[in-house]
Amino acid sequence: MTDSSLNQSVSQNGQIRTPIANNPLEWHIEDVIRHLTSIDQSLIIHAETFRKHEIDGKAFLLLNSDMMMKYMGLKLGPALKICNIIDRVKGTKKSTSLA
């Protein structure tokens, strides 16, 4: 007997949500937002900006701090935090742990 709920997580408001795909290129906009906020909850204030600019997994991996500041209106601090997360997703060695 297989229970599909074992492959899902429950959000804080009790809604069942599907897990984020392992391949970031397959992430939808909400997956990107969920990943960002799972690492740094303070980034939740930028969720609507990611929705507005339709930042899915493919776009997420192409972002850099200049783009986020110039076109998305983010300040330097959050842009750098997001760049660090992007580097970690890409598996680069230059990323810095923020823990």
From TrEMBL:
<keyword id="KW-0678">Repressor</keyword>
<protein>
    <submittedName>
        <fullName>Polycomb protein SCMH1-like protein</fullName>
    </submittedName>
</protein>
<dbReference type="Pfam" id="PF00536">
    <property type="entry name" value="SAM_1"/>
</dbReference>
<dbReference type="InterPro" id="IPR047531">
    <property type="entry name" value="SAM_Scm-like"/>
</dbReference>
<dbReference type="GO" id="GO:0005634">
    <property type="term" value="C:nucleus"/>
</dbReference>
<dbReference type="GO" id="GO:0045892">
    <property type="term" value="P:negative regulation of DNA-templated transcription"/>
</dbReference>
<dbReference type="GO" id="GO:0042393">
    <property type="term" value="F:histone binding"/>
</dbReference>
<comment type="similarity">
    <text>Belongs to the SCM family.</text>
</comment>
<feature type="domain" description="SAM">
    <location>
        <begin position="24"/>
        <end position="92"/>
    </location>
</feature>
<dbReference type="InterPro" id="IPR001660">
    <property type="entry name" value="SAM"/>
</dbReference>
<keyword id="KW-0805">Transcription regulation</keyword>
<dbReference type="GO" id="GO:0003682">
    <property type="term" value="F:chromatin binding"/>
</dbReference>
<keyword id="KW-0804">Transcription</keyword>
<keyword id="KW-0539">Nucleus</keyword>
<dbReference type="InterPro" id="IPR050548">
    <property type="entry name" value="PcG_chromatin_remod_factors"/>
</dbReference>
<dbReference type="InterPro" id="IPR013761">
    <property type="entry name" value="SAM/pointed_sf"/>
</dbReference>
